[in-house]
Specification:
The complex is a heterodimer.
Chain A (H helix, E strand, L loop, with lengths): L4 E3 L2 E4 L5 E6 L6 E7 L6 E7 L2 E4 L8 E4 L6 E5 L8 E8 L10 E2 L3 E5 L1
Chain B lengths: L8 E5 L4 E6 L8 E7 L6 E6 L2 E4 L4 E4 L5 E6 L8 E8 L16 E6 L1
Parallel strand pairs in B: 1-9
Antiparallel strand pairs in B: 2-7, 3-4, 3-8, 5-6, 6-7, 8-9
Classes of the chains: A mainly beta, B mainly beta.
Chain lengths: ~120, ~110
């Protein structure tokens, strides 16, 4: 079946603009995660959802960042008033939450955000 | 969360066995040890997870000593396509845990040469 998809794959924007990054998880996956990855670093946790409920947003850098998953499937990460320091690869992952098995996270290809 | 320490880089040749060791001195009783692999321009991919002793799957083996303060990922007979970054993660993940966030360090860049 299809994996995690993200759109757009590349986004170039000017400082001060708002951007919305979309994640379409694997069908049936309960949990959805957002990470940010800088060059040469591992992914940095931002936030995650179980169904439509945001479980943890402790990784969001500031209040310009927000995320939603209104119907428990597709999720949108929004960055308002973008700044150059927001430039990074934004990755989405999903996992099938179940009782006994390891909830392996499946990552999407990412959205490369460049803020000019 | 337990902090992990692993080498920044390693080199190997095709056909050799590669062992990447990760230190996690402050691992908690209910923490699992998980390894992810990341190829250039791709997202990380789960390789293996263990709690103690040895775990083996079709890709790798994971060795965990009794004190669990370190772990070793073993890749048998590597090929050029195993060139990637390998991340060691420690935390309450899996077995139905809802603490789903993963904390990645910088990982180990493994380069396999012909």
């Amino acid at each position: 079946g299809a994996g995690v998809s993200q759109s757009p794959r590349y986004k170039v924007t000017k400082r001060g603009q708002d951007v919305a990054l979309r994640c379409d998880p694997i069908s049936g996956h309960v949990s959805l995660y957002w990470y940010r990855q800088a060059l040469g670093q591992g992914p940095e946790f931002l936030t995650y959802f179980n169904y439509e409920a945001q479980q943890d947003k402790s990784g969001l850098p500031n209040d310009r960042f927000s995320a939603e998953r209104p119907e428990g499937s597709i999720s949108t990460l929004t960055i308002q008033r973008t700044e150059q320091r927001d430039s990074a690869m934004y990755r989405c992952a999903s996992s099938l939450t179940s009782g006994d098995s390891y909830n392996e996270q499946f990552f999407g290809p990412g959205t490369r955000l460049t803020v000019l | 969360l337990a902090k992990t320490t692993q080498p920044i880089s390693m080199d190997s040749y095709e056909g050799q066995e590669v062992n990447i060791t990760c230190s996690h001195n402050n691992i908690a009783t209910n923490d699992y040890i998980t390894w992810y692999q990341q190829f250039p321009s791709q997202g990380p991919r789960f390789i293996i997870q263990g709690y103690k002793t040895k775990v083996t799957n079709e890709v790798a083996s994971l060795f965990i000593p009794a004190d669990r303060k370190s772990s070793t990922l073993s890749l048998p007979r590597v090929s050029l396509s195993d060139t990637a970054v390998y991340y060691c993660l420690v935390g309450v993940e899996g077995r139905g845990s809802t603490l789903g966030r993963l904390y990645f360090g910088r990982g180990t860049q493994l380069t396999v040469w012909p």
